[in-house]
Amino acid sequence: MRLLFIEDDPKIASFVIKGFESAGFAVDHAPDGESGLDLALVEPYDVIIIDLMLPKRDGLSVIRHLRREKVKTPVIILSAKDSVDDRVRGLEIGSDDYLPKPFAFAELLARVQALVRRASGAAEPTRLTVGDLSLDLVTREVFRGGRRIDLQPLEFSLLAYLMRNADKVVSKTMIMEHVWHYNFDPQTNVVEARICRLRDKIDKGLEDKLLHTVRGVGYVLRQDQ
Predict the structure, then answer these.
(1) Tens digit of pLDDT at every position of the chain (225 positions)
(2) Which of 29, 52, 177, 220 has the most CB within a 10 Å radius?
(3) In a 3-state reduction of DSSP, which class is residue 191?
(4) What CATH number has the domain spanning 2-120?
(5) What is the spatial order of strands in the sheet that 2-6 belongs to?
């Protein structure tokens, strides 16, 4: 999932970005309202988190502009302005949620996940299964045929993305956009390297291979009949 965080405080930005990346999000950061608006108008995001007191353009102005342009991406305001009037104003101009600072990251993550589920129109399952491979999004445990598989955070995010798109071929670019930061050099072999390591962990030594390379197109996770 892709998230845009519009925040001018570098300490808060670093803390939040690390938290969401560990949770499997690809995060873009904008340090002011103008650059945040530019990104939000052209890039496809699953959710936007925005501060209100921003340089160049304030958060409320950014949200108003997005809604005038029919951008329906869910927006959560994260702001030190925590009066009832501030919250009501933020919701009235088009935000979907409002969380005052200081905040607990666990609550922010839960609110973002709820917004994404609401926007998709369906609750995301807590367990993904392809053949005898299972992944638990809550406990972050992965098993294949009863054997536990230990994955690094990026490997877990990559596998979760592939399992959500089981039987669909996903390109290298699609993987980079949803698992890594969108502006990775397309010539890098970071995806190939991670796919290779993931394949070793879930397929090595087994006759029934799940992770397949579609030459010249991308990768697919499927159980061959």
Answers:
(1) 789 999 999 999 988 888 888 777 888 999 999 999 999 998 888 899 999 899 999 989 999 999 999 988 899 998 887 778 878 887 888 888 888 888 888 888 888 888 887 776 655 567 889 999 999 877 889 999 889 999 988 888 889 889 888 888 888 877 876 776 544 555 668 888 889 999 999 998 888 999 999 988 889 999 875
(2) 52
(3) helix
(4) 3.40.50.2300
(5) 26-30, 2-6, 47-50, 75-79, 97-100
**What does the block give as tokens for 113?**
């996940």
Query: CA 207 from chain center: how many Å?
Result: 33
| E strands present in the chain | 2-6, 26-30, 47-50, 75-79, 97-100, 127-130, 133-136, 142-144, 147-149, 211-214, 218-221
* Residue type, position 123, single letter: A
- Distance (Å, rounded) from C-alpha 92 to C-alpha 86? 10
CB 17 within 8 A of CB 29: yes
Order of all β-strands in the sheet with 142-144: 127-130, 133-136, 142-144, 147-149
**Protein fold of 127-221:** Arc Repressor Mutant, subunit A (1.10.10)
Beta-carbon contacts of 184 under 8 Å, excluding residues fewer than 6 positions away, are 176, 190
Domain with CATH 3.40.50.2300 in the chain: 2-120
At what angle are helices 190-203 and 153-164 packed, to 10 degrees? Answer: 80
What would the two tokens of residue 115 be? Answer: 């917004």
Q: Which regions of the chain carry the CATH code 1.10.10.10?
A: 127-221
